[in-house]
Structure formats: structure tokens, C-alpha cells
Amino acid sequence: MKFYDRQTELAQLARKRETAFNAHSQMTVLTGRRRIGKTMLIRKSCEGTTMVYLFVSRSNEAMLCNGFAKTINATLTSVFVPESTESFADVFEMLMRAGRTEKFTLVIDEFQEFFYINPTVYSKIQDIWDRYKDTTHVYFVASGSVYTLMTRIFQDSREPLYGRCDSIIKLRPFSTDVLKEILADYKPDYTNEDLLALYTFTGGVPKYVDLFMQEGCTDADSMIDCMTQSDSPFINEGNALLIQEFGKKYGNYFAVLADIANGRNTLAELARSMGETSVAGHVRRLEEDYGLIAKRRPIFAKEGTQTVRFEISDLFLRFWFRYFVKYRSLIELENYDQLGNLIRNDYPTYSGLTLEMYFRQKMIESKKYIHIGAWWQAKKGKEACEIDIVGICADSQTAVAVEVKRQRKNFKPEEFARKVEALRNKVLANYTVETACLTMEDM
User: Of 49, 63, 70, 388, which has the most beta carbons under 10 Å away?
Assistant: First the structure.
């Protein structure tokens, strides 16, 4: 798949590289989940310039340095790193010295892996960086996909590299417009159903989009078939993403995420499901430490309100936990046909929920709103009153209340009007409230 989008990130990287090459060394931290396209972005940004790319695999330090030496010696002319070098600190210092006479980008990919190899590396890097950065021309990019460790390394005040980076870039999934562009390139006559399927199954993560496009999977049926083959990379993808984050105690975290993916999304429901497990602690860590779930409160609800729902922030993981974890027994029995049928039969309902997230994302991308959320209230003895999306416009005087339906024929204007009136009376008395029904036709 060709390189798409990332113009903002490319511009940020270019600005910092220019400063490094023309003034003094700069450090950028690039984070983002696995498969988000960090390495491809780095390589694209370095086209036409000198780049030393070092990948930190989980090996021993001496073996890593041996491989690094070969790469550096083949790339730079102003330094020679002996292959017998066993300390990464020595390698890093030689690279920084080379920056006195040569301008280059130094990329260390999966930077967080030094935690498992030799955690003292970080304090040594800090010392070397502080001594050389003002008199050299190295653009140092530290890239990593383990969110908790990268956050700890650079944003925990107790860590040696705290405050050393000049910029932090968090790479996010493709926007809805970019997904449209990609799908149009591979299927010019794509339908909105095809677009919703691509969004539902990938969440805009570039690697997953690429896998589908390379296999010619441009509609829901072919995507489901692709994901439920015996050799499908999707089957164990969640494990690859999360076990490194959670460590050996991943079981309870997986259970909480699976519950949320299947609709048990309040603390009370999670507590009932998990029994004696300390759910509140796990939920807090999933939200604050790992960034995998997010709280949803009714719009304008107070911080301490008990009316809270949780949702998985990553659309692919939301899908993976709902099907690949829930029906793990089918995978163990190699009954992939049945798994595919379960996903296919549930898809109209599941993608209807995803459609709401799609429109919420489009509203965020429009930059027209200062606040976007939902609103609901439970009434004893009556049906709950809920509005899918509420957006507060930039003028702070207008609000938009949105009902999302797959098909417009299922929209009930009078019922929605009653909900909007309740919303207006409760929290939007000072706003002009506009209403809309968004369907597949509006994608």
C-alpha cells in the first residue's frame, strides 16, 4: 500500500530535523500502538537525508551492539564503531560525537525494550545527551509501541530522560477521509457499507487496512473471510498488542475488556461479572495507565457523577475482544467457518453501534465543536431516555442533537423530539438546539 496522509506529522518531524541540522541536536519521541505506521512514517520523513535506523529487539546488549555497529559503519563516514563494542552507552556516545561533523537522523525503534535488556541505559543516554546535544547536529527519534513504558521513560519525573525530549508525537489511526481515499483507490465504486466495514474491522489502523487491501478484501463478507482463516494474523493480534503491556497478570485485564466489549460497561455490571476481583483498580489502570478504555458521562455531567459508562478506545480491540476472545473455543477447535458465521450474523447489529462512533469521529475531525458526547438518563418504571451524540458548536450558543440509525426508515421523529425536549430541559436550556438523524447515506 502506498503512503497515505500523515502530512501534519511529516511537517513536525521536518521542522525538528531542520533545527537539529542547523542549530543543535533535537530529540523527538514517537509513540503509538503496534501496526499504526511509526516505522513507515519515520522512513518517509527521512527520504533524501542520512538516517541511522537501530531496532531494539529483546536480545542481550552485546549482540545488539554488534548488529548496530554494522549498520552505523555502513551508513556514516565520520565514525567507526568496533563490532566488539558491548555497551550501548559507548555506541550512543560515538554517534553523538559523529554529530559534531555529520548531520543525520538517529532512529531507535522499540526504545522501551532497553527496560528488559539493561535499564541503566536510560541514565547513561541522559548523561551523554546532556553533554553533547548543544554542540552536535543529531536528530534523535525514540520510537516505541508499549504505551506504559514510553510514558514512564519520558514523562515520569523520577526517570532520567524526563524533560529531555523536544517534542512528542502520538500517531493515531487514519481519519475517515483517508479511509475513503484508500478504499476509492482499490475499489472506485465502493459503497458506504464497504466503508463502514473497513472502519469497523480496522478502526483506521494502517497495517490492518493494508492487509485487507493487499488481499482484495473491500467488502464485509471478504473481510470476515480473511480474518477467520486458520493463518489469519488477526486471530492472535490482541495478544501481541496487550500481553507485553500487562505482563503475567493479563488475565483479569482481558476479562474486564471482554466484558466492556460485550456491553457490560458500568462498574456495577463489571463487579457482578468479575466476582471478588478488584474491578475498580483494574478499570482505573486500564484508563489512566494503559489508555485502553475511556469514561463516557452524559454531556455536562459533573466529574463525580455515578452515571458512567466505559468503552474500549481502540476499535480493533473492541472487535477482537467481542469475537476472538469470546469465541476462543471455536478457534481452539479450528472451527473457523462457525466463527465467521457468528461474526457475519451479528455484523448488522455490531456495525450499527460502530456507525455511531464513525459519526462521532467525523464530528471531531470537522473541528466545528468544542464538546462532543452523548446524553442519557434512566427513569424508574419508564424506558431510558438517551441521545446518541450531542455536539456543542464553537459559538457556544448552539448545540446539535443526533440520532444515528442504519436506515432512515427506523427513525421515529416524534419519539426523538421528546428526548430532545428532555435534554433541553435538563442541560441545554441556554442553547439553540438543532437536531439531525444520521444514517448510512450520510457517511
Answer: 388
Count of CB atoms within 10 A of residue 390's CB? Answer: 24
> Which portions of the chain are predicted below pLDDT 70?
276, 378-383
- Residues 109 and 143: beta-carbon distance below 8 Å: yes
Which residues are registered as beta bridge partners of 339? none
> Which 8-state DSSP code applies to residue 348?
H
Element (H, E) at 433: strand 432-438
Give the C-alpha distances (Å, rounded to integers) separating 416 from 58, 402, 438: 55, 9, 13
How far is the C-alpha of 179 from the C-alpha of 198, rounded, in Å?
A: 8
d(CA 333, CA 354): 29
DSSP string, 385-421: EEEEEEEEETTSSEEEEEEE-SSGGG--HHHHHHHHH
Q: What's the confidence (pLDDT) of residue 379?
A: 64
- Its CATH architecture, for the domain 367-442, is 3-Layer(aba) Sandwich (3.40)
Q: How many CB atoms are closer than 10 A to CB 347?
A: 19
**Per-residue pLDDT at 424:** 94
C-alpha to C-alpha distance for 437 and 417, rounded to whole angstroms: 11
- 170 in helix, strand or coil? strand
The confidence score (pLDDT) of residue 250 equals 87
pTM more than 0.90:
yes
Contact 27, 129 (CB under 8 A): yes
Q: Sketch the domain layout of the chain as residue ranges.
A: 7-170, 237-333, 367-442
Partners of 298 in the β-ladder: 374
Average pLDDT, the chain: 94
**pLDDT tens-digit series, residues 9-65:** 999 999 999 999 999 999 999 999 999 999 999 999 999 999 999 999 989 999 999
CA–CA dist 20, 105 (Å, integer): 9
* Three-state secondary-structure class, residue 140: strand
DSSP H helical ranges for 215-334: 220-227, 237-246, 250-261, 267-274, 279-288, 315-320, 328-332
* Domain 237-333: which CATH number of 1.10.10.10, 1.20.120.340, 3.60.70.12, 3.80.10.10: 1.10.10.10
d(CA 117, CA 213): 37
